[in-house]
Amino acid sequence: MKGVKRMKASQESQKKVTQLAGQPIKAFQLGRSAREWQHGYGTPSDGADTNQQHQPTWQLTPTAKQLIIYFSRSGSTELVASQLAAATQADVLELVVKRPYSGNYLETLRRANTERETEDYPELALRVPDLAQYTTIYLGYPIWAMTLSHPMTEFLTTYGRQLTGKLIAPFMTEGGYGQGDSVERIQAILRGQGARNNRYTRPLVIDGNRADQGTQQVATWANHVEAMA
Ligand SMILES: Cc1cc2nc3c(=O)[nH]c(=O)nc-3n(C[C@H](O)[C@H](O)[C@H](O)COP(=O)(O)O)c2cc1C
User: Could you tell me which residues are beta bridge partners of residue 139?
Assistant: First the structure.
């Protein structure tokens, strides 16, 4: 039975997914060569997390056991979240902040550095539902300064206790320097918030400029997560 489900997940995710909950995804860094892309340095966004034409993606059902919670500034992590949603049929909750990060990379970098130094993380603009129905939580984020990006830090710091007992599956996009200490940060924040009995899958790490090429990798990882659930 599990084998059949896995096969389906893999076939589903072979389709090119450029929408999430019926909304188009714009990812600014896709297709850029390594030289142009400079590990994500300079990547613009449209100044709205993630697209001005978007409603935040909150796709919640009463029966799903898996939930994808993600933040994305310039679209790549959102694209991976869409591939994952197609492969797993999980519910989706996008993190948005009250004051979105600038479309300008350097302004974003300055703000992110200040927030990190002062540990003053951005206020979220969403109502988080009761998470009791979910057994697996996927956490998706871009890497900032070799660690979690701040909206995810804020989410975990505020709602971490609700993740008690859940299987945590971290996924991220980054500029080519890897996962940094982001997984350790998730573990430390959850412990600090009093969440207990969490298990962790291995993380999924994808280069932001190749987020559209990761469908097979996403499907393989989703199967790994499912096998641990
Ligand atoms: C403020 C900021 C800091 C970043 N720091 C890093 C870093 O330390 N290491 C890295 O590999 N990429 C870094 N990046 C690049 C992003 O992780 C990468 O472009 C990611 O794919 C963006 O995801 P998104 O499109 O979902 O926002 C940084 C990007 C920003 C905006």
Answer: 69, 170
Whether residue 204 has pLDDT greater than 50:
yes
Whether 10 has a pLDDT exceeding 70, the answer reads no
Q: Where are the domains of the chain?
A: 2-228
Pocket of ligand 1 (CB under 6 A): 27, 29, 39-40, 43, 72-78, 105, 108-109, 112, 142-146, 173-177, 208
Q: Are 138 and 107 in contact (CB under 8 A)?
A: no
The yes/no answer on whether domain 2-228 falls in CATH 3.90.550.10 is no
Residues facing residue 141 across a β-bridge: 172
Predicted confidence (pLDDT) per residue in 114-144, tens digit: 999 999 999 999 889 999 999 999 999 999 9
Tokens 């142009």 — which residue?
Answer: 36
**CA 144 / ligand 1 centre spacing (Å):** 5
Three-state DSSP state, 74: coil
Q: For residues 64-68, give the mean pLDDT.
A: 98
Model confidence band, residue 5 (pLDDT cutoffs 50, 70, 90)? very low
Q: Which helix (H) or strand (E) holds 94?
A: strand 91-94
In three state form, how does the secondary structure of 132-147 look?
Answer: CCCCEEEEEEEEECCE
Measured in residues, the chain has a length of 229
